[in-house]
Amino acid sequence: MSAAAWGADTTRLGRALDAVRDTLDRPGHVAAVDSLRGEIRRRTGVTVTAEDVTDGDALDRATRILSGVVDSALLNIGTQFTWIGVRETGRPVGIADPANSLTTWATVEMRSGSVSTTTDPEKQTSVTVLAPSGVVAEAWSTALLGLGCDRALALSAGVVCADSVRVRWTPDLEGRVVLFRP
Fold first, then answer.
1. pLDDT (tens digit, 9 = 90+) per residue, 117-168?
2. Considering 40, 50, 127, 182, which has the largest number of Cβ atoms within 10 A of its Cβ?
3. Cα separation, 136 vs 154, whole angstroms
4. Below-70 pLDDT ranges, the chain
């Protein structure tokens, strides 16, 4: 995990970041997955397991540790980001070409919560989900990936889908997605 954190009490901030590092070595208990799993299964037919949301769980545990200590923080594990702060951030998160992660096709503005991208390079498809927590974002991006862009976009809000043809997003993200490739 990488973390950039800001706060007035740097000693307290340092201890909190150490605590975050210590928790990453231990798996968490993802209680929220049980109810989330039922909703996802009902709406998509896809089964999401606790193993599917380990990065989101780690980000959520880090969020709980840092929330009372930092003014703001940006956390990252792989293709997932979480923002902690009293104000929204407005940070752009890249939407990569699903066949070549070094090429950015678009960005989506992250305001709060978590952004998770799941990619299938063989099918040249990626699904990015913006959600209030890391577990929710990762669970939905994992579940929606196998459904294809049309179904993914119809089933959930806060979704950006890129396939071999184009980048599309749900209406609630209008004005927050910037295309670099039509």
1. 999 989 999 999 999 999 999 999 999 998 999 999 999 999 999 998 899 9
2. 127
3. 17
4. 25-33, 181-182
Which position has the token pair 């939407």?
95
Domain count, the chain: 1
Structure tokens given for 153: 């976009």
Rounded to the nearest 5 degrees, what angle is found at the Cα of 75, between the Cα atoms of 72 and 77?
175
Q: What pLDDT does 173 receive?
A: 97
CA distance readout (Å), 21 to 71, 90, 148: 19, 26, 36
CATH code of residue 169 = 3.10.520.10
Cβ contacts of residue 47 below 8 Å, gap of 6+?
A: 37, 40, 41
**Residue span of the structural domain in which 65 resides:** 2-179
